[in-house]
Each structure stands twice: as structure tokens, then as C-alpha cells.
Here is the input.
Amino acid sequence: MISDQIRNLIGVEVKDDCDLASFTTMRLSSRGTLIEVLETQALVTLLPYLNNHQIPYLLLGWGANQLLPPEVPGVVLHLKMPVSPESLEELKPEYDFPASAGLNQLTALAIKYGLKGWEVFTGIPASLGGAIYMNAGTNLGEIGNLIRTVTLVTPTGEIRTEMIGAKSFSYRKNYFVKPGEVIVSATIAHQGIDQAISQKIKEYLEYRKKTQPLATRNCGCVFKNPHPTIPAGKLIDLLGLKDLQMGDLRISPKHGNFMENTGKANWDQFSSLISIIRYQMDLWYGIEFELEVKIPYH
Ligand SMILES: Cc1cc2nc3c(=O)[nH]c(=O)nc-3n(C[C@H](O)[C@H](O)[C@H](O)COP(=O)(O)OP(=O)(O)OC[C@H]3O[C@@H](n4cnc5c(N)ncnc54)[C@H](O)[C@@H]3O)c2cc1C
Here is the structure.
């Protein structure tokens, strides 16, 4: 399926029939062709190749809000552009980072200098690219408000820069990544220096540890909150569904909107559990639950 032209391309590593379970935080079993991308320039060749040969591809960041099917059609792209150590040392008004940078690296920088605004993504397991795509956030705010520009590679291999504005994001959603485009880097600003930020981040991390099952294999929130003041987890809890188990998959006893893989949970168990929750929500509350977790090819 993948020609030698691509296998020999500088800046990519092709891994056939790869075990992809460890590439998602929930670790459902999955296999497929993985292409690790180490340079933006490689995407300029790779994306037109995949599109011209009608090979489907999906982007995988940390796989913290994405579940892969047992056999992934086409290829999985995983960005591994290096983050320059200097960029994690300096104090600047704004920073350019590759999409492969981890939010944990940015949080370490925020703690070091007290970067105001960066507390909003405290503890979210994510690559910067995945966090921008999802407009990740906490009840302190969303990452989208800090992003100034996003650079993408288009399916035809052009590099384009998106200027971020008031209408670029909404709750867990972006409006500018077009189908087939890949986020390769972004500029992120802060709102000044505040020495209280490092303490705020540490306290918020403690709060998250108490309220979310962080030590388990899960994919973050499965459903979007149906309304800003109505958390999906609370509704699941009210219906007494917490702890419901389907094989090795259970609704977290700690947080109703998290599902935990306690052993060898599989795709079918996940599908069954979300169907039960959606049916119950519709039956008792007349609410149609929308998935937050991305499930490609579903
Ligand atoms: C324990 C736990 C706690 C969590 N807590 C939170 C929380 O508090 N708030 C929150 O918002 N989320 C939370 N999440 C969910 C998750 O961390 C976020 O959604 C995060 O943004 C996903 O980033 P990722 O790099 O893992 O992306 P993935 O899950 O790999 O991908 C998510 C989507 O982004 C797309 N994508 C990824 N990279 C790119 C790219 N470079 N270009 C184009 N598209 C791309 C993917 O194709 C996919 O559609 C949590 C998850 C876990 C496991």
C-alpha cells in the first residue's frame, strides 16, 4: 500500500501492522500502519501522496480523546517533530511550538515563570495539535483563547497559516481545520506574569486527582456536556449508572463521564456501553448525548 518513495522519504518512519493500543490512553486493542512524521516538510510530500492514492489517514496525538477501531484502514499519522529545549527555557510574550509538544511541557514553563492564562489546560493529557483541534479546556477556561496563529499542511501539500479570531473555536470544537489538514505548529500567548499561577496549577492538579480517575486507562470525557451548567457525568451519576460494567469496561466509580478499561476491554464493549447510556438519557431526560471522544470509521 505504501510505496518505497514514501518509505524512503526523509522525516518519516513507516511501521506496518503496528500494535496501536499503547498509542491511545484507553488502550483498546488496535492494529494498523503507523507513519511517524519527524519534519513538516515530509508532510508536504506525504499528504498529496495519500490523497492522490486515496489512502485514508487519521491524525493521532496522544490518543487521549480518540479510540481506534480493531483494524485501522489506511494509515495513522503521528507527529514527532522535536521541541527545541531553548523554547522551554525562555520567557517570551508568545511561543511557537510544534503540534507534537505536550501540554505538560507547556505547564512546566507556566509554573517556572507564572504564565497567566496557561493554568486553563492544567493536567490535560494532550499534544498541542490535539488540544487545539479539540479546543481542550477545564472549568478554568479553554486553550483556544490563548492561540494566536496555527500553521497547517493541506491535503495538496501547501503550508497555510490560520490567524485565530473570536470565531475560531467553541466548546470542544474548532472551525478552521479543514478535512485532511494537519496542524503542524502554533503560536501561543500568555496574559502576563503572575507568581500566583504556579500555586494555582498545583492546587488544580490536586483537585483533578481527587475528581477524575487519572490513574486508570480511559479516554477522558466520553460525552460532551449537554449544557454548560449540566455536566454529562452528573446525569450519568443520577441514573445510577456509575460502576456499570461490560466485560473489562466500566463506567468509572469516580466520574460518570469516564469509562475505564480494567483489563482487555474491546471495541464492542465500548459501543454497547455508550448505547446503553444514550438510550437511558433519551428515555429519562429526553437528552441526546453527543460524543466528545473521537471515534474514526465508526
Ligand atoms: C485522564 C484524562 C483527562 C482528560 N481531561 C480533559 C480535560 O480536562 N479537558 C479536556 O478538554 N480534555 C480532557 N481529556 C481529553 C483529551 O486530553 C483532550 O481532548 C486532548 O485535547 C486530546 O489531545 P490528543 O493529543 O490526545 O489528541 P487525540 O485524542 O489523539 O486526537 C483528538 C482529535 O484531534 C485530532 N488531531 C490530533 N492531532 C492533530 C493534528 N496535529 N492536526 C489535526 N488534527 C489533529 C485527531 O485526529 C482527533 O480527531 C482528558 C483525557 C484523559 C485521558
